[in-house]
Design a protein that fits this description.
binds zinc ion, two-stranded antiparallel ribbon, 2 domains, single chain, mainly alpha, 8% strand
């Protein structure tokens, strides 16, 4: 995961640009949930109207696993609008069918709330992000582990004392995901040594299966081997035309819009500090690719 920088005003401007009446409709519906004291499923959803604003902001990537998704008109099929905090209920996590997902998490993960979700947030722009179908449907569903009590009646995720274990990557009011997760080669690890940030990093890795999903491991391996080649070639003689290509590839592979940017940035940082260590990770990534070729 990485952070997608945008201000409160810019995000709402992006929404206004593609759906000028959306924020008014959202306010109206939120008011109805407030009166009802719960989320009441309306006859039609409106969040898909603003999907493109989040797709563009996130560089057509899943906000959780950083897979690149389709940008064209077919992108609407691949991208899901995800409610970060579940709107209608909160399921127990880990699910009873997959208790192993909490392996190694020896801290409280919060209680389920079967009849009530975060009912004032179904139309809150700060509660949306785009995710792939695997992250959304197979892993996230209505789970939302927290430390301590839930604040189901919160009005804005910007102003809350709730302590979620997942992280919201849009804007800068939550932790920077790169302070929670870093990568050793293709393997995600908690970025912090102790404390709440470490617990969040551990939970995120477990929650989304980030260390196990084979598609992610293959894509990250390709990123790392490409980065290794680009880093080696970028320092070649200044007249070498290959050098320019390599330097541009370094930009492409580490930008916010690059798939697996957190993994790529961890590798570049290691290359700068410990080239032999980076080489070992590149060889391991290549070994992984050869093993599945
Ligand atoms: Zn994903």
């Amino acid at each position: 995961m990485i952070r997608y920088a945008v201000t409160h005003a810019e995000l709402r401007q992006r929404i206004n640009d593609i759906a000028p009446t959306w924020l008014d409709k959202a306010r109206e519906r939120t008011e109805a949930y407030r009166v009802a004291g719960n989320y009441v499923k309306p006859p039609s959803d409106i969040w898909s109207e603003i999907k493109r604003a989040y797709m563009d902001l996130q560089g057509y990537k899943c906000g959780f696993c950083e897979r690149r998704l389709e940008r064209s008109e077919f992108g609407n099929i691949e991208h899901d609008v995800e409610h970060f905090r579940p709107k209608g209920m909160v399921e127990q996590w880990p699910p009873a069918s997959a208790p192993e997902r909490a392996n190694g998490l020896n801290f409280s993960l919060g209680a389920a709330s079967p009849g009530l979700g975060y009912f004032l947030l179904p139309h809150e722009p700060d509660n949306y992000l785009i995710s792939c179908k695997t992250c959304n449907t197979a892993f996230k569903s209505n789970g939302f582990p927290v430390e301590g009590a839930r604040e189901l009646n919160m009005e804005s995720p910007r102003h809350t004392n709730e302590r979620p274990l997942l992280v919201y990557p849009i804007g800068s009011f939550d932790d920077d995901p790169q302070k929670l997760i870093r990568f050793e080669g293709i393997v995600p690890v908690p970025a912090a040594r102790s404390g709440r940030r470490r617990r969040r990093g551990q939970t995120l890795i477990n929650f989304f299966g980030l260390a196990e999903r084979d598609g992610l491991l293959i894509e990250r391996s390709i990123t790392i081997v490409n980065l290794h080649l680009a880093l080696a070639l970028a320092s070649a003689g200044s007249t070498d035309p290959t050098r320019q290509i390599a330097q541009h590839m370094l930009q492409v592979l580490t930008s916010d819009r690059a798939a697996h940017a957190n993994c790529a940035r961890s590798f570049v940082a290691l290359w700068e500090a410990d080239q032999a260590g980076a080489l070992a990770f590149s060889e391991a990534a290549l070994g992984h690719l050869l093993s599945v070729a």
